[in-house]
Design brief:
This protein has a single domain, classed as Nuclear Transport Factor 2, Chain: A (Roll). The longest helix has 15 residues. The chain is built from three helices and four strands. With 128 residues, it is α+β, with helices and mostly antiparallel strands.
Length: 128
């Protein structure tokens, strides 16, 4: 691993500018607002880095987020349920700084755990 790749992995452990399609505002301000929304709804929210891989100017990170839904999300009253979802971030670095990232979290899984959407049924003849 090059020195740049090691530095980029260290920076990735902090934060990013994202291209999450669910983030209507975008950029650093959109990220701040989105994180604030979820931190308010899940006051004990924690993120765990499961894997982090660097190659060239890109770092891929697999994340697990978990917390207790203690306050309302827009359109979803607090449920008191503990949830865990996975996510992936692909970040591009330039001169040691994150310049863009593509972020995806399993919000469908979140909504199912909160009971907002029905749990997925296993296909006939299979088991989970």
């Amino acid at each position: 691993m090059s020195g740049d790749e090691a530095r980029n992995k260290g920076t990735e452990r902090r934060f990013y500018i994202d291209h999450d399609s669910s983030n209507a505002i975008g950029g650093p301000e959109g990220v701040r607002q989105e994180v604030s929304l979820y931190r308010k709804a899940f006051p004990d929210l924690v993120f765990a880095i499961e894997d982090i891989i660097a190659e060239g100017d890109k770092v891929a990170t697999r994340i697990t987020a978990s917390g207790t839904h203690e306050r309302d999300l827009p359109g979803i009253p607090a449920t008191g349920k503990r949830v865990t979802i996975g996510g992936m971030v692909l970040t591009r670095y330039q001169n040691g700084k994150a310049v863009e990232a593509w972020v995806k979290f399993d919000f469908l899984g979140l909504y199912r755990q909160l009971g907002v959407l029905p749990a997925r049924e296993a296909p006939a003849g299979t088991s989970r």
